[in-house]
Amino acid sequence: MKTLRRLLLPLALFCFSASYAQNVIKGDVRNGGTKESLYAVSVSIKGSSQGTYTDNRGRFQLNTNAKLPITLIISSIGFSTKEVVVSTASQPLAIELQQATGLGQEVVVSASRTTQRKLASPVTIEQLSSKEIANAPQLNYMDMMQGLKGVDVTVSSLGFTSVTTRGFNTSGNTNFTQIVDGMDNQAPGLNFPLGSAIGLTQLDVDNIELLSGASSALYGSRGLNGTMVMTGKDPFKYQGLSVLITQGVNHISSKNSNDPVKPSPYYDWTIRYAKKINDKLAFKINAQYTKAKDWVATDTTNKNGIGTKYTDPNYMGVNDYGSATSADINPFLEYALSQNPALDPLISPMLEKPNYVARTGYPEYGYLDNNASLLKANAEIRYKISNKLEAIASGTYGTGRVVYTNDTRYQLKDFKVGQYRLELKSANWFVRSYTTQENSGKTLVAGPTAQLINEAWKTSYDGAAGGWYPEYTEALLNGLANGMSSVDANLAARSYADQGRPMQGTTYFNHLKDSISSTPIPEGGTLFLDRSKLYNTEAQYNFSKLIKFVNVIAGVNWRHYSLNSKNTLFPDMGKPINVNEYSAYIQLSKKILHDKLSLNASFRDDKNSLFPTPKVTSRFSAVYEVAKDNFIRFSYQNAYSFPSNIQALQNTLNGYNSYSSGGSGYLLNDIYHFNQYVPYTAASVKAYQESSVSDSLKRFYTNELKPQSVNAFELGYATLIGKRVLLDVLGYFSTWKNFIGYADVANTPGTNDPAAFKDRSTYISYNIAFNGAEMVNTYGWAASMSVDLTHNYLFKVNYYADYMVNKNNSQINNFNTPHFHVNMDFSNSGFGKNQQWSYGVSMRYKPGYFYAVNGGLAKGNVPSSTVLDAQLSYKLIKAHSGIRIGGTNITNKYYSTGTANPAIGAVYYVTYAYNIF
């Protein structure tokens, strides 16, 4: 009997375990029309949290302990959801999904930090899916931003695009927040988003959501002009190897383009690989490399008047670097008169007014290296601790050469930025920590570097040895004495003084440029040494399962900036400057009136260690479903922005006795001594120099910089008509307070004697950040329509308008936005045999508008532009590949997005894609 029990016990255990054996369900999912495999399709067990996704060949494997039969739910965007009953796991399943319209079915998360239909969002939100990005004619997703409703961009170069909504467009917009996989994508020192420099690669974008207008209540300081939330692809969902290779050409000659660059190749190579090791572990790696000849800024507009470089001795072109050195030659004329009284009939009339002359500048082409390149790489590993708890570790690194526009043009050479994250997330909560590490590399500052190049080969003035200005004055007088016209005499004098001037590209020029740009600013050069860092930890909990009568989400955030520029960007002599931000937020939401009315309230409290008072902001919204798929929304948002680190603390020598400056009390009083030596507006100083009347000096009153804020109201309506037409209309009104702008001022440290302004060496100029005293109001409206025309045809059009009133003319407001935009898209995602062909065409129109560059570099009118992008694609279904030919700005009519920025021509390209279409 004992022996029998020993034999039966293992058998019983085997039978017991067999009754709970895991079922392995396999299958593949295909497009019911084209029979091609569908990847990243959700396969889940009905009534359970268990599920998986199809791989890049449409195959899936689901391991479950659930007792058969079970029902599988098969779903994917753009296809009808299907339920499949599984009674046995012995045979693989062959499942086909039928295409269906996706209009009005899109879901978003960022509008309220919870999943909801985009149609029922409480605020205006735009969205791009991975499928839209894969089929777009544009070269990258940042270029696609220009076609979204309410969005405006500034393109500084091929690799640097800044985004904004509802006005106040500028390069490096510190009032727009860009979040990538939960991480703020800002540069730690400069505080503006880094665009695509360390963002997601082209192949790793799952979706992009863009909130228009104020969004501080949910996403914190600097969300006044909107927030873009980018989500990378989950390696559990998107598996396999994907490759995207684009070869193109740009700088195709065009009449009146002023493009000095010959036709050049454009390269963009992207690779992504993701692998699900098992049901618990998955990883992905990404890399993208872009290389091309960059667009070149060639604006020759004279900032000092209406003349040209041939007619105005004081010519200073917008993109002419080095000509910011300007001096009144009257002291040299007076010296010449003292040496030769016979020149009195010639010189005395000239002394009746100032005679300003600028040094000869260098154009951008041949001065800044226009070999643009960007390399970014990303790796991520995910581990599912349980079905509801996941751990994530990721690292992203970017480096390259791009050009950025601010108070001058900056060539970011060999910059390096790293962003590293650890995260633990559940269905109801997450804890996330990340850091951003910045290295400015060998950044070349165009304006000041060119000024120092001029001083290096020949000083402007040397009492003992002469200099450029004495030589110019001598030659000018000789020319005038010999009967030359003033124009010809100026040209001859400039030519004489410029003898020995090194030209771009020569060994001597490059030696001076490299020597100056590699010497730190405090040591007499122009090199930034920015090694600033950002550390952030945040946590959020959704209390919805604990609190039944109202949905509650709450979170906390801590952020630390370590500003380390070696006294080249900030006054961080000796040690880094530490800045801390603390915040907490809560969101309450509830549906009433039979779930027809959704109410939402959000509150956020923030504290920045540079400012004494915390800032409380709020958002209130209501969405009412007046009929099926018809929603009216109203929202009020109070948003704010603590001054960025640059706006508060910048202390950068920007030319001869000239500073780009923040507006903190520490700088204004302790370093610049505005409390002792009166600052005057730059315009009044110039007027005084021309008139010698001290009453023309106008004092500039400024206090320590304060946070700026905006109160924004929006009313909108969205509807889906017959599942084929999606409409969205809105209007908004905003009031800005303590608006942060920039102004040019000057003072004379050591004396308040106005006469000191007569000598350029005795006064200092500043371009400072300050709060405007007036309220600034903006308003606008927008409308968009998407129409599913059946047979995979889709038409989209949007129109939006933005206006600013009661502009404070004493500051550069940087509204920088046309009165309206019109965007249209027409596409077919599949036609012909097996729907192997597809195409897309997009058009963007902007009328001309006024644009002022942040920091006072330039201002002027940007001409109107009409831009056409188009592509035609063909799928190689059996090879899981595709070929695309296309072009951006295919008419090759050059256009610009802002004063001092380059004109952008066409890029014509051919693309090979593997495992994407």
TrEMBL record:
A GO-annotated cellular component: cell outer membrane
GO biological process, one term: siderophore transmembrane transport
One annotated GO molecular function: siderophore uptake transmembrane transporter activity
Domain TonB-dependent receptor-like beta-barrel: 454-889
Subcellular location, record wording: Cell outer membrane
Keyword Signal: yes
Residues in the signal sequence: 1-21
Keyword terms of this UniProt record: Membrane, Receptor, Signal, TonB box
Domain TonB-dependent receptor plug: 119-227
Recorded superkingdom: Bacteria
PANTHER family on file: HEMOGLOBIN AND HEMOGLOBIN-HAPTOGLOBIN-BINDING PROTEIN 1-RELATED, TONB-DEPENDENT OUTER MEMBRANE RECEPTOR
Family under the similarity heading: Belongs to the TonB-dependent receptor family.
Stated name of the protein: TonB-dependent receptor
Organism expressing this protein natively: Pinibacter aurantiacus
